[in-house]
Design a protein that fits this description.
The protein is an alpha/beta fold. The chain has helices at about 1-15, 15-20, 30-35, 40-50, 60, 75, 135-140, 145-155, 175-185, 200, 210-215, 235-245, 265-280, 300-310, and strands spanning about 105-110, 115-120, 160-165, 190-195, 220-225, 250-255, 280-285, 325, 335. Helix 13 packs across helix 14. The longest helix is centred in the C-terminal third of the chain and has 13 residues, at about 265-280. The structure holds pyridoxal-5'-phosphate (PLP) and iron/sulfur cluster.
């Protein structure tokens, strides 16, 4: 009995991350069925799916409560009919990133750090994503374009930090990432390599020996900014992945987005900060909602967000307080709201 149980557990946990990516749920009907949800949700899910497709890996699905349409993780991945509503002020490029793209795949908005679009793919499709309309097809660098990007960084000694973003940069192969990380490390004025990723949360098995190998050998200081919006996203596997990253010399932070129906309460935000710290992650930014078309139903509004964060102070030590910010096009940093 005991032997059989341990074999089946082993079989579940040893699916590699590319297998888990490949096997992610991408169909509205299958998503509802797997979670025991009512088929009345299907028309809305299908409409939203047509605009921005569903993608939910099983490791994330396992953290969603069965049969609960209000689950805070489900709301991040299940499309609803409201995504088709056109609402004034909610636009396709809320951060005006197209204006700050000196090379395809490179966004240079803040003078001493650059953001590289390392991959157009994501392990999960988050309904509120401000890049849900991003033209990745036009921005994914070819090998020659990568050289161009590296030359751009090499020629500007003000740049001390390279940020791999996406999409999710860790959706790329370790072979490509190792090449890029090594090239970046050869640029002498760079001090830090930062990775903005949701993959270690969505598929914790992404943190494998191949990833840890190129990260730990880099001379650059390594920072990973994870993206977790709710305490329920952090399970044992996520904690283990974080532990491995820390052992490889990576400093861990988290950014969240304040989302209606997901984390728009003081208890939810306090529980998130506590769970992050237990996993060895410090809260960094809490992003005010960016007005992206198709996701207006997640918008909490600045006044309510400020009131929530004000009340949160009474619940948390200062080092667990996220900074409530918005990215305002044209500003030279994120703008604190509070
Ligand atoms: C958010 C962002 C950064 C990083 O900002 P930090 O305040 O350093 O976290 C860098 N470049 C771009 C284009 C960004 O949007
Ligand atoms: S993982 Fe990040 S970039 Fe990808 S859909 Fe989610 S929020 Fe957007």
């Amino acid at each position: 009995m005991i032997t059989r149980t341990s074999i089946s557990v082993q079989a579940v946990t040893t699916a590699t991350w590319p297998e888990q990516l490949r096997d992610a749920i991408r169909d509205p009907q299958l998503l509802l069925k797997t979670l025991g949800l009512d088929s009345s949700l299907l028309p809305g899910a299908t409409q939203g799916h047509a605009l921005f497709s569903i993608r939910v890996p099983h490791a994330y699905l396992a953290r969603i409560r069965h049969g609960d349409p209000d689950d805070p993780l489900l709301r991040q991945v299940l499309p609803i009919g409201a995504e088709t509503d056109a609402i004034e002020g909610f636009v396709t490029d809320p951060l005006a990133e197209a204006e700050h793209t000196p090379r395809p795949g490179l966004i240079h908005k803040y003078h001493n750090r650059v953001l590289l679009i390392g991959s157009g793919a994501c392990a999960i499709n988050c309904r509120y994503c401000f890049r849900r309309h991003f033209p990745y097809g036009d921005n994914l660098p070819s090998k020659a374009q990568w050289q161009d990007i590296l030359d751009y960084i090499r020629s500007d000694s003000n740049i001390i930090e390279a940020i791999l973003s996406g999409g999710d940069p860790l959706a790329s192969s370790d072979k490509r990432l190792a090449w890029l990380a090594d090239e970046l490390a050869s640029i002498t004025h760079l001090k830090r390599l930062r990775v903005h990723t949701r993959l270690p949360v969505v598929i914790p098995e992404r943190v494998d020996s191949h990833l840890l190998a190129w990260l730990s050998r880099s001379r650059l200081q390594k920072i990973m900014v994870l993206h977790i919006n709710h305490a329920n996203e952090i399970d044992e596997a996520v904690r283990t992945a974080c532990q491995r990253l820390k052992e490889a010399g990576v400093t861990l932070f988290n950014q969240s987005v304040i989302l209606r129906g997901v984390n728009d309460s003081v208890p939810a935000l306090a529980a998130l900060s506590e769970a992050l710290f237990e996993a060895g992650i410090l809260p960094y930014y809490l992003h005010a909602f960016d007005p992206v078309a198709g996701a207006a139903h997640f918008d909490v509004g600045d006044d309510e967000a400020i009131a929530l964060v004000d009340a949160l102070r009474a619940e948390l030590p200062g080092f667990l307080m996220p900074r409530l910010v918005r990215e305002i096009p044209g500003e030279n940093s994120k703008t604190p709201l509070f």
